[in-house]
Design goal:
87 residues, four-stranded antiparallel sheet, 29% strand, 37% helix, alpha+beta
């Protein structure tokens, strides 16, 4: 039984390490910035300027390409889609 628990624990730890390594490091899940691939990000509308500025300062390998409101609520933006490209 102890071997079984040790093996299962090892598998769980390896799975957690593997999943953590697969997330791109430039995504900030705590600030609710979502990455959709191909340089497309979604930033929440609250504190948009601050979060965008912080993101740009920590990702100097990316260049801002385009910004567009999501228009999710009858003209009121819940957030903004931002497209970056590599420099």
């Amino acid at each position: 039984m102890e071997k079984f628990i040790a093996v299962v624990s090892g598998i769980i730890i390896m799975f957690c390490v593997f999943c953590k390594q697969q997330k791109p490091k430039h995504i900030s899940y705590n600030n609710r910035i979502s990455y959709y691939g191909n340089g497309v990000y979604h930033f929440p509308a609250d504190s948009f300027g601050y979060k965008l500025s912080e993101f740009i300062s920590t990702n100097d390998s990316l260049r801002l390409q385009s910004v567009a409101g999501d228009g999710a609520s009858m003209g009121a933006h819940i957030g903004y889609f931002v497209i970056f490209e590599k420099k």
